[in-house]
Design goal:
heterotrimer; A alpha/beta; B mainly alpha; C mainly alpha; A: alpha/beta; Rossmann fold; 3 domains; six-stranded mixed beta sheet; globular; C: mainly alpha; 69% helix; ATP-binding (chain A); ATP hydrolysis activity (chain A); ABC_transporter-like_CS (chain A)
Chain lengths: 514, 422, 427
């Protein structure tokens, strides 16, 4: 299929998400779209897939203009999409997920389980993507879930264009390698591929041509041979250094000691499995790992939101067992949650209220159970100046701020009170480059004042830039602690549970699902 | 494929033993209390059971003390098992046994009074008939909520069905036209919910509560107005369908083969809704939309359209159930005559875990307790009927509190879907 | 959040940017009137509801309906009949709730006392009083993200608690009355705590557990009224003993006219509203309630205890509804409560809270409105069906809860910041 976009534009109210996008995908071509978070990539793909209607511009398939009123039209036109957030119905079997929307029936709408199962096996055989059609999706590992997504996308009546939206976000390096191979094979067999990513290395590895989008506009058309620096500067609009200036760390006494920590989830899965970790005063320990290997639970256990099933956590030399989050926070635990919208801010509250969200009970913000609005406001005014939070006033609701400024509100909250130890989970996710630099420098400054910092990040680059020591988490355990100059490949191997010293197991015989 | 060499997440084996101290302690204490109370008060009493219709008063007498002690012990033992730890997959069995034993023990106790006889055929037949509004209401709830729309307005749809059913029957002179009218009224009132839930994306719980109030206000208002004129609200009756010789089988005959149309339609609908939900394209899409609407949307399923029509169809069921109150019981309409049974139907749906077969079980239990409460207060029992009537509500509290396993609603239940959001 | 993406109309931003020639007062006012902001939605909801009520009055009235049968022959008959019916009905409501014009004439002619003139208002305030309490009970819980549909049961428990202390103790009035009132609050609070505790400890949805507790409370009352302890010693029907004189809420205006029933409970209700307002907007507890109500995850991350917030809020809400029960048992029904005393005050509390948008001030205002509807409907029956008050109430709050519907019907503009609705979470 030859796909052409002409002047595609999407506006939400006065905000222009995509502005006059021109793009051509040749048959069998792997076309990468590169851009930062929030650059307009997902909006573009949602227009292509019929989820959103373009404000203006047109989409041409093999020269014919098309218009989609829903994903059904896009599927019928031969477009398949693998979404960034998997669109799988958890309790459904693989076969049911694949047949959803184009069910195999025996007439009168009665389902034929046998036909659905066979269809999955056919497609998975044709493309070498082995799957068990009867497996329940929510029980499958993410890598396999993604395979289900790909099979689903390829099971359309005539899928000739496959859109992959940030497909590697939740995959291990080995899974990524495998996925890229699958993509190459698909392209070889004639399927056109739109590959959306903000990761330069993957784009270089797989793409035939690269289009860079910034703030909703196409800013560059590059060859995959272009240098990383060239791509990065096109993406962010100016030359950026991922390096952060910092002096060697001077670690002091332990500020966080985690011993033999085990947490079992509601579903009965051991999400943390005898985890051991120590962070000292005056150092940043970067916790690397593929998302979903226990990072979230570790952070929540340190804060006290998750009760350990066994093991100990000591903060600042004291066992915190039996102390609630409020007490731990009061004792000097800083916490930047990974999901800002969910855990970090009360969107309906004002900036000022959010800044004192975990200190509203302390003097001077309240006395005798009564909130002192004046004191809260004064504090907010100070923080807004110090942390350069772009807001019209302290009374503005947090929801009206941009992502970067929302994150600064959280940073201001955590950095404006005495603290001994800081958990920073994905501190720059969805934040623009300027704010990222600011947050990075604050984290380093924080370290230099003697605070122990645990940096949890799924971006290896961020870990490399900031960490004085790197711990790798896999399947709920720390599988290795290495120096910050350790090569990527070594950490990559650790992230999939292979030992750092030996080659990763490349066992192609063991496909399918267990 | 290196991915597959990664060990699967360490799932806790469902045969592994798990403790349930809270639930276990509750059952153990309840069971022991029963045993103690029985020993203290029930010495020398007997419980009489009779087959009253086909075999005209064949009677058996059972010693109450022994029965209650045994059942109490079963309940306590189940509790103890949970405290000590039991395989996860046995938890349901243990809690079902504990609750069943407890309820049976109460029954034995209740029917041990002077002059009370457990007339098995009448009571069971009555129980099945009384469970019908719960079945229709709860099935209506299942159809809505499986597609992700919370329908707390079943009570209101009952009222609309009950009122319209008798009104249309009066106008046309046909009880079947009345039934059709009730169904249409039910679906018209859910149509408002459907519209608000899909097009206007309002909070479904809040609107459901308001729709109940609206239906109550509307039917009461119209009742007062129409009462001024003759011939709008006379009682209509429906025939009992008797299945020839099958009706003479002891116990089964009176219970299953001498009932009104409602019972047969209700039982059929349980099977039909189950089949539709789990074996058809509509069911697959409905469940997908209730669980993960964005996934269904990305596969070309029109989420809000499906929800809309599901809710409207659910109104047909609830409206039919509403007609049970008037046409089914040969009664004229009266203000607020559904008396909160729509809320019980909602509870039945939750107790039945959004599954038609579970709904059937829950409805039968609730119908049974209602029937027992009526029967006992008619017999002048000293056991306060109010407490028996409370039983379904108490059982529901226990279920939602998770003492009998966790009831898990469809994931997107009550969450409006806006295709623009991702 | 979703309201922005809902209407990606390209026209709107331009209209915003175009510099208005003179933003004079009339223009801004006109703009305000055609915008779906909360004030205008409230006003339009009231208008629409009364309009719908009028239509129902017309179609359900036999005589008026008959004039429509020859509509094309004599349309003016249908028009006059409809107009008269609607005007008469709504006037009857007004006269029963605010001011009776007959009494006014009599008063001006010197045939009636001033106290007679106040009677409709006194009735309105009397019916509004329990609604203030139940409205606060629902509204407070709303602010914590909880839908307290159980105010009815909590009110019944409060009634019983106040009643028991009211007739069983022998104390001087300055001690007896406060104790009886507090007993009502405690009893309601205890029942209110149950859904809170269940939600906090097991995640059971408060709507389901409150519905169950409503039914349990109602049945419990039926049983309790039949026991020798509570049952009246003089009357055979299901009535309780009367409350001792030392526990009866004093009336406020009976010196003017003995028929003016409004009593001290109204003052307590307004005090409760002021306290609730203070609690929500000034206290640290209110800060926590609001944070949990908006985003429990962020609140938990900030160290707030979610479970205890649910429990305390539900207990406080139950106590408010319980006070409403005490107001009934020690006030208008101090001669003995029945299964009917609670009417539908608890359920109406939901509508009061919705119309008042869970703000204590708004709750008092909407309690007065619905109290007036109730008083008006009761005095206007049987000429006007008494349930017109329920019907109007439900219609008003339906529009309040679905501002998008009002906006669509009247083609209003989306205000800045989107439409305001109240949230209660799904199961």
């Amino acid at each position: 299929m030859r796909l052409e976009l002409k002047g595609l534009t999407k506006k939400f109210g006065s905000f222009t998400a995509d502005d006059d996008i021109d793009l051509v995908v040749e048959p069998g071509q792997i076309h990468a779209i590169l851009g930062e978070n929030g650059a307009g990539k997902s909006t573009l793909m949602n227009m292509l897939y019929g989820i959103l209607t373009p404000t203006s511009g047109e989409i041409l398939i093999d020269g014919e203009p098309v218009s989609f009123s829903g994903p059904g039209d896009a599927i019928a036109a031969g477009i398949g999409m693998v979404h960034q957030h998997f669109k799988l119905v958890g309790p459904f079997s693989v076969a049911d997920n694949v047949q959803l929307g184009r069910e195999h029936t025996r007439g009168l709408g009665v389902l034929s389980a046998a036909a659905a199962r066979k269809a999955v096996l056919d497609v998975s055989e044709q493309y070498g993507l082995r799957l068990d059609p009867d497996a329940v999706c929510e029980d499958l590992p993410v890598g396999v879930q993604q395979r289900v997504e790909i099979v689903k996308a390829l099971s359309g009546p005539k899928t000739e264009l496959l859109i992959l939206d940030e497909p590697t976000a939740v995959l291990t390096p080995a899974e990524i390698t495998e996925l890229l191979q699958i993509i190459r094979n698909l392209a070889k067999s004639g399927t056109s591929i739109l590959f959306i990513s903000h990761k330069l290395k993957e784009v270089q590895a797989v793409a035939d041509t690269v289009t860079v989008i910034r703030r909703g506009k196409v800013v560059a058309e590059l060859e995959p041979s272009a240098s990383e620096a060239e791509m990065a500067s096109a993406m962010v609009g100016r030359a950026v250094s991922l390096r952060v200036d910092k002096t060697p760390a001077d670690p002091g006494e332990p500020r966080l000691e985690v011993k033999d920590l085990t947490v079992v989830s509601d579903a009965g899965v051991k999400v943390l499995d005898g985890l051991e970790l120590t962070v000292h005063a005056g150092e940043i320990v970067g916790l690397a790992g593929v998302e979903g290997n226990g990072q979230t639970e570790l952070a929540r256990a340190i804060l006290g939101l998750v009760k350990p099933d066994s093991g100990h956590i000591s903060i600042d030399g004291r066992d915190v067992h039996g102390r609630g989050p409020a007490r731990r926070i009061a004792d000097g635990l800083g916490y930047i949650p990974e999901d800002r919208g969910r855990d970090g801010l009360v969107a309906e509250f004002s900036v000022a209220e959010n800044i004192v969200l975990n200190q509203y009970k302390d003097e001077p913000y309240s006395k005798g159970g009564v909130v002192d609005a004046g004191a809260v406001r004064r504090r907010a005014v100070d923080s807004i100046a110090e942390f350069d939070i772009r807001t019209q006033s302290p009374e503005e609701s947090a929801s009206s701020l941009s992502g970067g400024n929302q994150q600064k509100v959280i940073i201001a909250r955590e950095f404006s009170r005495p603290r001994r130890f800081l958990v920073a989970a994905q501190p720059t996710r969805g934040v623009d480059v300027g704010a990222t630099e600011f947050i990075h420098s604050r984290l380093v400054a924080e370290r230099d004042t003697g605070t122990g910092v645990l940096l949890i990040s799924s971006e290896l680059d961020e870990i490399y830039a900031l960490a004085d020591r790197i711990a790798v988490i896999y399947n709920g355990r720390i599988v290795g602690e290495v120096a910050p100059d350790t090569p990527r490949e070594v950490i990559g191997r650790l992230m999939v549970g292979a030992s750092a010293a030996t080659e990763p197991a490349r066992d192609d015989a063991d496909g399918g699902d267990r | 494929m290196a991915v597959d060499t990664a060990p699967a997440p360490a799932l806790v084996d469902d045969r592994a033993r798990a403790r349930h101290p809270k639930a276990g302690a509750t059952y153990a204490v309840l069971g022991l209390l029963l045993v103690l109370a029985a020993v203290a008060w029930l010495g020398g009493r007997t419980t009489v059971i009779a087959v009253d219709r086909t075999l005209t008063d064949a009677r058996w007498a059972a010693p109450t003390l022994a029965a209650v002690v045994v059942l109490g012990a079963v309940c306590a033992a189940a509790g103890a098992w949970m405290i000590a730890g039991l395989p996860q997959r046995r938890f349901k069995l243990a809690s079902t046994a504990a609750v069943a034993a407890f309820v049976l023990a109460l029954l034995f106790w209740a029917y041990s009074q002077e002059g009370t006889v457990f007339r098995a055929e009448s009571i069971l037949a009555g129980a099945l008939f009384l469970s019908m509004p719960y079945i229709f209401g709860a099935l209506s709830g299942v159809v809505c909520e499986r597609s992700g729309v919370i329908n707390i307005g079943i009570e209101g749809q009952f009222l609309m069905g009950a009122f319209t059913g008798v009104l249309i029957a009066n106008i046309t002179g046909s009880v079947y036209a009345g039934l059709a009218g009730a169904m249409i009224a039910g679906s018209l009132s859910t149509m408002l919910l459907a519209l608000l839930a899909t097009r206007y994306q309002v909070n479904q719980v809040v609107v459901g509560v308001i729709l109940n109030l609206l239906a109550l206000g509307f039917t009461s208002f119209m009742y007062d107005q129409l009462k001024k004129a003759e011939g709008f609200n006379d009682a209509f009756s429906m025939p009992v369908i008797t299945w020839g010789p099958l009706a003479d089988i002891p116990v089964l005959g009176p219970v299953l083969f001498q009932q009104k149309l409602f019972v047969y339609v209700g039982l059929a609908m349980v099977v039909v809704v189950w089949f539709l939900l789990y074996r058809t394209r509509w069911g697959l899409r409905t469940r997908a939309v209730g669980e993960h609407p964005a996934a269904a949307d990305s596969m070309g399923v029109d989420v809000n359209r499906l929800r809309y029509w599901n809710v409207v169809a659910a109104g047909l069921l609830a409206g039919f159930g509403g007609a049970w109150f008037t046409l089914g019981n040969s009664l004229a309409f009266n203000k607020n005559m559904t008396a909160g049974l729509g809320f019980v139907a909602l509870a039945v749906m939750i107790v039945g875990r959004w599954n038609p077969l579970g709904v059937l079980a829950g409805a039968l239990i609730f119908g049974f307790t209602t029937q027992i409460a009526r029967d006992l207060s008619a017999a002048g029992s000293s056991v306060p009927g109010e407490f028996l009537q409370m039983l379904p509500y108490a059982v529901t509290l226990v279920v939602v509190a998770g003492l009998i396993g966790k009831a898990r609603a469809p994931k997107a239940d009550g969450v409006p879907y806006n295709p623009g959001d991702k | 959040m979703s309201t922005q993406t809902e209407t990606p109309a390209a026209g709107k931003p331009e209209a915003d940017q175009s510099p208005e020639p003179k933003p004079n007062f009339m223009r801004l006012f006109g703009r305000y009137l055609t915008e779906a902001n909360s004030v205008m939605v409230t006003i339009y909801s009231l208008l629409l509801a009364f309009l719908i009520g009028a239509v129902l009055l017309i179609v359900s009235d036999e005589y008026t309906r008959s004039t429509f049968s020859y509509f094309f022959a004599r349309p003016q008959d249908a028009w006059y009949a409809s107009r008269d019916l609607v005007v008469e009905s709504y006037t009857a409501l007004f006269e029963g709730a605010i001011l009776n014009f007959n009494t006014l004439e009599q008063y001006q002619a010197g045939q009636a006392e001033f106290g007679n003139l106040l009677r409709p208002l006194s009735e309105t305030l009397t019916y509004a009083t329990p609604l203030i309490f139940t409205g606060l009970a629902v509204g407070l819980a709303f602010r914590a993200g909880l839908f307290n549909i159980g105010a009815q049961g909590q009110l019944i428990f409060g009634m019983m608690g106040a009643l028991i202390v009211g007739f069983s103790l022998d104390l001087p009035i300055w001690l007896h009355l406060p104790l009886a009132i507090i007993a009502g609050g405690v009893a309601g609070g205890l029942l209110g705590a149950v859904p809170g505790v269940l939600k906090a400890s097991t995640g059971a949805h408060e709507v389901i557990s409150s519905i169950m507790l409503n039914n349990i409370a109602a049945l419990f009352l039926v049983w309790a009224l039949g026991t020798a302890f509570l049952h009246s010693e003089t009357k055979p029907d299901l009535v309780s003993k009367p409350v001792d004189d030392s526990a009866v809420l004093p009336t406020l205006l009976s010196s003017l006219n003995p028929s003016l029933r409004v009593n001290l409970a109204l003052v307590i209700g307004i005090a409760a509203a002021v306290f609730t307002w203070w609690l929500l907007s000034k206290s640290t507890f209110g800060f926590r309630i609001r944070a949990v109500g908006f985003n429990e995850h962020a609140a938990a991350t900030a160290g707030m205890r979610i479970g205890s917030t649910y429990t305390t809020t539900m207990t406080a809400a139950g106590a408010l509804a319980g006070l409403g029960g005490a107001a009934l048992a020690l006030g208008v029904s101090s001669g003995g409560i029945t299964t009917n005393t609670a009417l539908d005050y608890g359920f109406s509390g939901i509508t009061v809270a919705l119309l008042g948008r869970a703000n204590p001030g708004g709750i008092v205002a909407s309690a007065l409105l619905f109290g007036a509807l109730k008083a008006g409907a009761l005095s206007a029956q049987p000429d006007v069906p008494v349930d017109i008050s329920t019907l109007l109430q439900a219609t008003i709050v339906l529009f309040i809860a679905a501002p998008a519907l009002v906006k669509a019907i009247l083609h209003l503009r989306t205000p800045r910041g989107g439409l305001v609705t109240l949230e209660a979470k799904g199961w």
